[in-house]
Amino acid sequence: MENQATATASSDTKSASQLPQLHEPRNAGMELDMDWVAAAQANTSAIERRAKTLPGRRSVKKEYQAAWLLKAITMIDLTTLSGDDTWGRVRRLCAKAAHPVRQDILDALDMPPITTGAVCVYHDMVETAVKALDGTGIPVAAVSTGFPAGLSPLPLRLQEIRESVHAGAKEIDIVISRRHALTGNWQAIYDEMRAMRESCGDAHVKAILATGELGTLRNVAKASLVCMMAGADFIKTSTGKEPVNATLPVSLVMIRAIRAYHARTGFRVGYKPAGGISKAKDALTYLALIKDELGDRWLQPDLFRFGASSLLGDIERQLEHQVTGRYSADYRHAIG
Amino acid sequence: MTVNVKEVFDSMTYGPAPESSAEAMAWIKEKDGKFGHFINGEFTSPAKGFATRNPATGEELAIISQAGKAEVNKAVSAARAAFPKWSKTKGHERAKVLYAIARLLQKHARLFAVLETLDNGKPIRESRDIDIPLVARHFYFHAGMAQLMESELPEAEAIGVCGQVIPWNFPLLMLAWKIAPAIATGNTVVLKPAEYTSLTALLFAEICVEADVPKGVINIVTGDGKTGEAIVTHEDVDKVAFTGSTSVGRRIREATAGQGKSLTLELGGKSPYIVFEDADIDSAIEGLVDAIWFNQGQVCCAGSRLLVQEGIAEEFYARLRKRMASLRIGDPLDKCIDVGAIVDPVQLETITNLVKTHGGDGEVYHAPCDMPVEGCFYPPTLITDLHSASPLMQEEIFGPVLCATTFRTPSEAVQLANNTRYGLAATLWTENINLALDIAPKLVAGVVWVNATNLFDAAAGFGGRRESGMGREGGWEGLAAYTKPKTTAKKLAPVAPIAAPKSPVVDGLDRTAKFYIGGKQARPDGGYSKPVYGPKGHLLGHVGIGNRKDIRNAVEAAHKAAGWAKTTGHLRAQILYYIAENLSARAEEFAARLGEMQPKSKKHSGKAEVEATISRLFTYAAWADKYDGQAHGVPIRGVALAMKEPVGVIGALCPDEAPLLGAISVMAPAIAMGNTAILCASQAFPLAATDFYQVLETSDVPAGVVSIVTGDHADLGKTLADHMDVDAVWSFSSTPDLTATLEAASASNLKRTWLNQGQARDWFGKDGEGREFLGHATEVKNIWVPYGE
After folding, report:
1. I need a surface site. Which of A309, B410, B631, B735 has the fewest CB within 10 A?
2. Which three-class secondary structure state does DSSP give residue B426?
3. From the list B5, B125, B452, which residue is nearest A46 (CB)?
4. Model ipTM?
5. φ, ψ for residue A267, nearest 5 deg
6. Domain containing residue B377: CATH number
7. Facing residue for A67 by CB, picked from B9, B636, B789
8. What CATH number is given to the structural domain containing B148?
9. Are B511 and B598 in a shared domain?
């Protein structure tokens, strides 16, 4: 494993996921528009119905499925966020990020090399990851701001962001203060988010709403809008540590907010569901949801990511099945 | 074809995802592509017929036999022969048969789904995820009804042989809606599937054999409209159930008039889809996909009239157009398709022509979807800025065409929504529960969906008001369509008035009975009266001879009193008690008068009749606040509220054999339930009713709630049945041969009829009151309210 990681670090493969280069202007944000926030609606049962029927409405088969799954890999933020993470563990993950699919499978599918969208770690592991990914073009994302609860003092949270950026993180996943959302203090959410975005500098910021702790889908819709108004580059469902993480209904609410924000401001904000997406089939459903609700432009790693750790393994098995016609086994694929 | 994975990786397009038709085609091939009828448990040899085609490709699937009179006769005879035993079969035994059918449907679910899609053109997702599961659900639900019938409906029995004709838009689902309740309650059936779509009905027939359905209980004959006509007009068919167009439904009403058949019709619609400004707009737009692009819009309850609050209209239309552009139209067997094929080139032409001819009334937007080159396809279409007079806003298009206009206020939304001859379904979107629960009862529709659309379940009745038909399918309310009260039929002899004596006895002061219209005594419009004599030759008074205009005036007055429907049951109860109290105060006078006007041979004394009348008023005062609706247990997180609503304006020909009790037995349930009533007094003994208006006048009955007219039952009845603004006609008249005329005339606006069919009723006994009357005085509206925050 260590060897492989070393090999990765020295690799200068330009990953396919970075091509073609897309230049999307960063979301500049806007003044907090409380009229808009107050008018946000989310009818839970209707949203659940749409989400429930979606897998039955869209189906992607054979080579198309393989292509979509490969695309899904390029959108994965390969993640490790455990108390027992070590440098070795992170290097192994980085190696997997740079070579997520066995070469013979890629060859059989006539595909150039691909990488995952990013590697996502705690601040302490940023430096290790940046080094391990040197030359791969894969950005390192750091979870920040007192992750996952977001309860440390604001100046410390902002300082944490700056240090992660300084350590080489190109993306910062922040958590919003659920207490402000639950008490309707949207101004406070907006102000914090603004400050965090500023602290990020050129690094892109993903706002984690922790939707499992917001109580209602209506709150999810409002929090989505407020974070985008405050300049979030991405909005993200969960830390992965809440009792309920990414779900299709929550996703529907968030991407509809993204669509509305784009229609009003012209800025495209990215979306990242995180936690609980572990099957290739689920990934396909998410991609179909994005395609139908937001359009093809969002089906690129600069606007869509999966926050997932075990999804890649299932996709690898599905890809081997596509190539060989036989069901695969997990030990046939390198662990990350 | 080899697909370049890298290219798809870059383009992220959907590829083909075809469902295999191999098994379904093999099933057809097994039959050599030719099908006979299913009569008396066996398939007949395939006979001369017609081709059934796959509308997506035009390819011929099979040859279906055309049933003529001979085949229909055979099928009806088989059903007749099977009826006595099946109707007496224990409920539990019938339940086992329905359960077996449900299980077999599930076991062959995919075959049914693929066959349905091949024959009809609907997307496989819909046949697989909606139609077939609902079919199985219907048989499960009604297996339960068979099981419970003896204990829960002890007074009900099967009607007999049911002739059922169903449409092509939900071929197997409509079969289930017809057959399941019919056989659950002990009827036997002859069913004809639509000409375009017979295949799943024939596969269902095979399943009947496996489910051990006794021979003759279910018969399926195939053919075109002529076959349907032979079934519905067959003299040995007791009950006709039809789902299809309003024009055919009207013809069936006319053709079966006077044949003594029970009739349920589920007809067309132009259902409103109302979006208030506080709605979850994206969800409301997604709802439209399920409302008007579900089954290519070929849905009787399709939300085809979009009414959007003006302030959000432009934004709504813009987002809707965007959503429409992402709909996928094409091969119905593709699992990634939203909109499939139109059922037949004829239907495609109808849709195309309607939009071509009238599209100019508004602004037409065809979704820029990739269209298949061949086959019957029509793009999802939105027509905005339509005025309510446009034929596109009034006529059922039965295709993927949404017609839109705007409204300013909730009351204007209701006004626009109800501005139609139809009354099948309605959808409304708002996040405000006050608004939703205020508007839903005001919409003239059998089904209302709040923040949802096109939800169906066997536990909730489905059916329309106005020209969308009569009767309900599903739920407890649906059983009324396939059962009748257990009674022993007794012929009703005509009751003649007392003939004019040679030399009438005239004593006392002249008494002039007038009409009672709009809370006032009114002279007959025609200016004619006739004398009424007692059995001893006394001239008891004169009554007016009512004409068309008197009925017209009474109907107008009844509509002015529409607020009665919104009063509370408690208030109506108090008024009914008060009527009883005031009648009681004059009991002796009324008793004497009843004695004076009727022959001495009468079984019940005047006193007994007044007593019974007072009791009857108490009965309905009691019921006024107790005939509750239900909260149906539908399989969603939410409720389907089955609300009992008044029918509207009821015109009734009152019984002659009990002139006071009969009139009140008709009036009291009607007004207790919130209807307004126009009573045509007993023709033979009209004074009993005209005396009564003085009681009404002193009892706080609001003007127009009850009108009383005297005259010739045949004349008045015909005028009432013809009247487009009367919702129901009841007749308990002893005038012979009224049924055919009244039923035929009722086709004008497809009003409900409840006629005695020449049979007597014991007005003094239990048949003279109760749930049967309340059932006819109400319509069930199912309001679906999903919830969750």
Report:
1. B631
2. strand
3. B452
4. 0.93
5. -90, 135
6. 3.40.309.10
7. B9
8. 3.40.605.10
9. yes
